[in-house]
Amino acid sequence: MRKSRWIGVGLTVSALVLSGCSAGPAGTNVAQDTKAPLELWTRTTPGGPGEQATKRLAEAFEKATGFKVQVTAIFDDFETKLAQRAAQRDLPDIVMNDVTQVGTLKSQGLVREIEQGKIKHASELTEQALKSNQTPDGKLYGLPYSAQASALLIRKDWREKLGKGVPQSWAELADLAKAFTTGDPDGNGKNDTAGLNATLSTKRGYASWYFSNFLWAAGGDFITETGGGKYKPAMSTPESVAAVQWFRDLGCKDNVIQPGSVTMPTPATNETFEAGKAGMYVVGPYLLPRFDKSLGKDKYEVVPMPKGAKNADVLAEGLSIFMMAGSPNQAGQDAFGDFAISADGQKIGMEGESAFIVQLPVNKNVDITQVRSDPRWKTYAEIYAKSGHYAPSIPNWTPVRQDTADTISALVADCKLDLKAELSKLDTKLTATLQQQGISAS
Questions:
Q1: Which of 28, 71, 362, 434 could form a disulfide with 440 if both were Cys (CB 3.0 to 4.6 A apart)?
Q2: Of 354, 376, 358, 357, which Cα lies nearest the Cα of 293?
Q3: Is the pLDDT of residue 5 over 60?
C-alpha cells in the first residue's frame, strides 16, 4: 500500500456513502514528488473495452510526458470502494467517473479545486462541457473528457413498413408508438412488440434518468435555481405535471411502453430493443456498436427527439477527470488532465469501433466528422450542442434523482395513483433534501 495521505478530518466509510456531508477542506501540505506514479481509477468493466481504451490513453500520456500511470478498472460498488480508500486516507490520484459526481466529491472534500491556468488546453474546452464541471460558485472541480446526449433510435424497417414518417412532435411520436405496438411491424403475426422502450426501474434512479428526456422538453424540471446557488423543487409545477401526465398516459392509456419497464434497469432494456421487442428507444451513442452488431446498422436510425411544449432538450451526460485530494504528484495530475482534453488526447480516446472512452469530443478543435465518418455521430454531436441539458452540480444529486425515480416508476406501475398528489409529496421530499444540503431557497 502506498503511504497514507491526509485528506480530511473524521472521514469514515459510512459518512461518505450515506451522508454526503462535507469532510472539510481537501488535503493540503502533502510533500510533492513529480516522480511518484499516478494511480488512476476508472469506472468501467474490468477487462472490457473501456479499460483497454483508458490504458491506451495512459500509455500515450506516459510516452509524451514521462509520468507513470497505473490504471485500475472498477465497475461494481465503485463509490463504496472509493469510500473505503478514503477511510484509509489513501485515495487514488485520479478518478475518471460521471460528471454528476462533481458536487458529491467536492462536498465530501475528496477532490481538489483545479486551477484552469495550470491546464494549458482548458481554454479549448467547449463552454457547455466546462460549465458541467463547475460548482455554483464557479469553481472547477473536474475536467470533462467525454460528452454525450440522448437521441431517438427508431426501427427504420418497421417505420417504413407501416408507412410512417420520422416523428416531428410528441403527438407524432405517440402515434408511431401505437403503430409499432398494434401494427405487427415485425410481421410474425403476434402481438409482441412495444412502441417505446423505457428504463423505468428505481435502481440507481434509472427512471428519473430516462424521464429527464421528456421533462425538460416540456418546460418542467426536477429543481429550479432561484439565484445565489439556491434551489426550489419543481416537480409539481404545471409544466412538470403535464410532462408526467403525458408520459404516464403512454403506459397507462396507450399501453405502448414495453411490459415490465418499471423493473427494468438499463441492461435489460437494452436487450429488449436489440431483441426486436420495441420500436423506439431514447438513449446515448454508446450503444451504437452493440446495436449495429445485434440488430444490423440498416435496421434502425438515429434522429433528434421531437420538440416538446418548450423545446427539444434531452439529457446531456459526460465523464470527468477528478484530481483527488492528498496526491503527492499534483503536477502529474494536472499533466494527465491536460493531455486527456487536448486535441491529441481526445482523438486517442475516440479511436476504435467499440473500445473508445470519448463519445463526443469536448475540445473545440476536434471535428467529430474528421475522426468518425459515420454520420450518426454527427447527429449526436449536433443534438448535444443544441439541446444537451445537464443536471445541476449541487452537493449531492443522487437523492434528487432517486426520489424522483421512485415517484415516476410508481406512477407508471400503478395507474390509479393520484398524480398531482404524488408529485406534491415528491416536492416535499425534494425540499427536505435541498434544506439538508444547505441550498434550499426556503
A1: 434
A2: 354
A3: no
412/20: higher pLDDT: 412
Q: In which band, very low, low, confident or very high, does the pLDDT at 15 lie, cut at 50, 70 and 90?
A: very low
Give the cell for residue 181. 405496438
Say if residue 1's pLDDT is above 60: no
Residues 202 and 296 in one domain: yes
Same domain, 308 and 197: yes
Q: Mark whether 270 and 419 lie in a shared domain.
A: yes
Residues 141 and 211 in one domain: no
Q: Do 360 and 380 meet the contact criterion of CB atoms below 8 Å apart? A: yes
**Same domain, residue pair 322 and 356:** yes
Cell numbers at 255, concatenated: 399501453
The C-alpha atoms of residue 211 and residue 42 are separated, in whole angstroms, by 27
Taking CA 402 as the corner, what is the angle to CA 400 and CA 407, rounded to the nearest 5 degrees? Answer: 100
As for how many domains the chain has, the answer is 2
CB burial readout 282-293, b (16+ within 10 A) else e? bbbbebbbebbe
Is residue 142 located within the same domain as residue 173? no
Q: Which CATH number covers residue 275?
A: 3.40.190.10
CA gap 97, 220 in Å, rounded: 27
Say if residues 85 and 92 touch (Cβ distance below 8 Å): yes
Q: Has residue 185 got a pLDDT over 80?
A: yes
| Choice between 10 and 193, residue whose per-residue pLDDT is larger | 193
Residue 29's Cβ-count burial label (10 Å; 0-12, 13-18, 19+) is: exposed
Would you place residue 19 in the very low, low, confident or very high pLDDT band (cuts 50, 70, 90)? very low
| Residue 22 within any structural domain of the chain | no
Q: Which of 150, 149, 159 is nearest to 300 (CA)?
A: 159
* Res. 229: pLDDT tops 60: yes
Q: How large is the average pLDDT for residues 46-51?
A: 94
Query: How far is 291 from 126, CA to CA, in rounded Å?
Result: 29
Q: Are 308 and 221 in contact, with CB atoms under 8 Å apart?
A: no
Asked whether residue 6 is assigned to any structural domain, the reply reads no
Let me know whether 160 and 270 are in one domain.
yes
* Domain-embedded: residue 7: no
Q: Per the structure block, which three cell numbers stand in for 156?
A: 427504420
Give the ranges where 151-205 is alpha helix by DSSP (H): 156-161, 170-182
CA-wise closest residue to 322 among 7, 3, 2? 7
Whether residues 364 and 244 share a domain: the answer is no
Q: Which domain, by its residues, includes 379?
A: 13-17+29-148+316-389
In a domain, 2, yes or no: no
Please give the mean pLDDT across all residues of the chain.
Answer: 94
The amino acid present at 23, given as its one-letter code, is A
